[in-house]
Amino acid sequence: MAKLRSIGVFCGSATGRSPAYVTAARSAGKAIADRSCRLVYGGGDVGLMGQAAHSALDSGGKVLGVIPEFMIATEGLYEAAETRIVTTMSIRKNMLIEESDAFLIMPGGVGTLEEIFDVLSRQRLSQHDKPVAFLDVEAFWEPFFKLLYRTEQEGFTPDGFHDHVSVHTDAGEAIDHLLAKLES
């Protein structure tokens, strides 16, 4: 029996201003479910992360949410999903990373940025070799990649570091890329 692949999804606990963000989150959840993968996310029932989780379950997929107990009051608890309640943000992030075979990053705020930098730093330090894909909705991630490339140009990040991530505008394409990387 083939191993169930898990895709960690990092994105906002808000929906953002553009309806395109919600559409992309729902497409990502469906794409993950349609490819018989499990969606692993921050456990809340709000924002883009809630949209992705709902869409995955609505499409017959499996979902694992990981949420600190203190955040349930503000982010809610998506009770239809398998949920692990933890005590700290650090435990949450470590569990999200451990439970994921690959990562899909969608628009989000400071929390999403923290997750991105943790995943990329661990990758840089050879603590994991899990593929990372960005879903670049409405060019949301362009400024981030300009900064990342600048850190390479200035010698703070090894040349070619950005080659370890891919950027996509279509959720299905991003998931297919992650799964192809896992199989190679």
What radius of gyration results from the CA coordinates?
A: 15 Å
Instruction: Give the overall form.
Output: globular
Order of helices and strands: EHEHEHEHEHEHEH
Work out the number of β strands: 7
Which class in CATH terms? Alpha Beta
CATH topology call: Rossmann fold
Q: For the largest sheet, list the strands in their spatial order.
A: 4-3-2-1-5-6-7
What is the count of DSSP helices, taking H or I runs of 4+ residues? Answer: 7
Beta content comes to 15-25%
Largest sheet: 7 strands, parallel
Helix content: 40-55%
> What CATH architecture label applies?
3-Layer(aba) Sandwich
Q: Give the termini distance in whole angstroms.
A: 19 Å
Helix/strand structural class: alpha/beta
Mean pLDDT: 95
Poorly predicted runs of 5 or more residues:
none
Number of domains: 1
How would you characterize the overall build of this protein?
It is a single chain. The chain has about 180 residues and is an alpha/beta fold. The chain has one domain: 3-Layer(aba) Sandwich (Rossmann fold), CATH 3.40.50.450. It is built from 7 helices and 7 strands; from the N terminus they run E-H-E-H-E-H-E-H-E-H-E-H-E-H. Strands 4-3-2-1-5-6-7 form a 7-stranded parallel beta sheet, sandwiched between helices. It starts with 5 loop residues before the first strand and ends with a helix.
